Amino acid sequence: MAKYLISFPGAAMVARGDELEAAGRDSRAVIEAAKAAGVYVFAGGLDESVRPVLVSADGTIREGGYPWGPSLDGGFTVLELPTREDAIAWAARIAKACRCAQELRVFMFDPAS
């Protein structure tokens, strides 16, 4: 089985007020369903109030992430699933619950993980 990253950037979350509260409730329900199905690996969002640091190979530390890259924020879910079709189906459930589109990516296989 492969591990899939289902994610969205913070700017994609446009729900506000009661709709945001409902999105939180509904997305937690999907995560509980993933746990019950035995496919859940990890989920969460990055704390955007804490700035990233870039740690170089020589140990040098610099405030901020890669200067040429996009900001990494938003919500992330990792599920372990047998097929891409299953991953798409779970991504659709998460998208519906979160009220925003989800990006789906597959992790490269690593026999040590």
Structure, explained:
The protein has helices at 17-37, 84-98, and strands at residues 2-8, 40-45, 53-55, 61-63, 75-81, 103-106. With 113 residues, it is of the alpha+beta class. The chain has one domain (2-76, 83-106): Dimeric alpha+beta barrel (Alpha-Beta Plaits, 2-Layer Sandwich), CATH 3.30.70.
Outline of the structure:
The chain is of the alpha+beta class. It has helices spanning 17-37, 84-98, and strands at residues 2-8, 40-45, 53-55, 61-63, 75-81, 103-106.
CATH H-level superfamily title = Dimeric alpha+beta barrel
Report the mean per-residue pLDDT as an integer. Answer: 93
Tell me the Rg in angstroms.
16 Å
Helix content percent band: 25-40%
CATH class: Alpha Beta
Question: What layout of secondary structure does this protein have?
Answer:
Layout: E1 2-8, H1 17-37, E2 40-45, E3 53-55, E4 61-63, E5 75-81, H2 84-98, E6 103-106
Antiparallel strand pairs: 1-5, 1-6, 2-5, 3-4
Helix pairs in contact: 1-2
Features:
single chain; about 110 residues; alpha+beta; Alpha-Beta Plaits; four-stranded antiparallel beta sheet; two-stranded antiparallel sheet; 6 strands; globular; Dimeric_a/b-barrel; Transcription initiation protein
